[in-house]
Amino acid sequence: MDIELQKLIDLALRKGASHAEVYQSKLKSDSAIFETNNLKRLENSQSEGIALRLWKEGSSGLAVAYGDFDSDKLVDQAIILSTLNNTEIIKPNYSHINLQPHQGEFIPTEQLIASGEDTIRQLRDIYIEAICSGEFIYSEQFTCLVNSVGLHCEYSKSLVNYYLELECSNGKDFLSVHDTKLTQGKIETQQIAKNILERLEWAKKTTSAPKGYIPVLFTPNGAAMLWNTVSEALNSKFVLEKTSPWSNKLQKQVMSNSLTISQNPRYKPHTIPFDDEGTVTQELSLIKKGDLQQFYSNLTSAKRLGIKSTGNGFRPNLKSYPTPVLINLIVEPGKENFKDLIKKLDYGIIVDLVLGEKIDISGDFSVNIDSGYSIQEGSINGRIKDTMITGNVYKILENIIGIANDSRWVNSTYAPSLLAEGLSVIN
């Protein structure tokens, strides 16, 4: 622990705070950026920030500093802000020490460059006219949380995030396909290249999508819009506000009995040992065979619900108070492979990527398909354009007729492809 963090807490207590906590975040990254098939530039960045939260006369105040800062001014600012807030019952987390070993491997910039060049070469060996761009990023993250009642938590990890996009044209038709992956340490670009080449093969011709209420096969990318809404419905904050449609449905069926959903904060690369309030993260059984098991919470929402925090209190940024956030949403895969689900269909569409804003907690949506494909007689017969789907997330999840065994990470969700019946397709 940085000794300055403890000094900051001691200073806050001397100035009249009853409790105090300091949250420290450090991030540095190195990037290799590719444009028009070549390395364009190298970038590196480094940032460090501290958030001081204190309680005085029952109210909390939060002040933030970046880089070098004046401790007295930071504490004074937090005290002033506390006078503007209502009395808060929640206090800092209990005393314990949780120091985690570093996770991940160091990746030199030379390896980022070589991986980018090699992957672009693989793609252009097959599509010589293609224009490729991408970004390969190595980052190191450090998080430390200490408070005035003896809590001290630290963890750090190294990550590699890589994104690659291929653009090509076929006469008047323009096509862009991209993929991304996040790992701890070892760079694994083979799957990215495979995914891009597969979608280029699917898109060799353009065709019209069938209209009306038809089956829709969501890839893990396409299904991401569904899981974002599910995450909100499971949030105890929205349960308390009565905006979640599942507020009064604990131990009741809320989706198809073929679906089982959990949280596992130990899954790499998104491993998180504790939340931003110092509570140890834990595996959660959220939905089991369609039945709602529990909601996730932080200290504030848990106290209001009369339960223990599940360790899901995270800060959207340093200037914000912790709020419930789901980590590592895991959807149990099925037993069929993706191609077998396609073979089941006389007609339908594949949704791989959609355009538009995030679907709100009501679940209703009407979105344009950015990347989609038509299915005819059990096979993919081309890319679809100018097509929209409308429906409701919860209704889709009640009517799942197939789950693939092709789970992959999309942001912090690990989920397979889903086959849903009867969505409205418009073109």
Automatic annotation (TrEMBL):
One family from Pfam that matches here is PmbA_TldD_1st
Q: Where is the Metalloprotease TldD/E N-terminal domain?
A: 20-79
Q: Which UniProt keywords apply?
A: Hydrolase, Protease
Which superkingdom? Bacteria
**Record InterPro entries:** Metalloprtase-TldD/E_C, Metalloprtase-TldD/E_N, PmbA, TldD/PmbA_N, TldD/PmbA_sf
GO BP terms: namely:
proteolysis
The positions making up the signal sequence are none
From the UniProt record, which GO molecular function terms apply?
metallopeptidase activity
Which SUPFAM superfamilies did the record assign? Putative modulator of DNA gyrase, PmbA/TldD
Report the GO terms under cellular component.
Answer: cytosol
**Per the database record, which ranges form the Metalloprotease TldD/E C-terminal domain?**
212-426
Protein family membership: Belongs to the peptidase U62 family.
What PANTHER family does the annotation carry?
METALLOPROTEASE PMBA
Query: Would you tell me the protein name for this molecule?
Result: Putative Zn-dependent protease-like protein
Instruction: Name the source organism.
Output: Candidatus Atelocyanobacterium thalassa isolate SIO64986
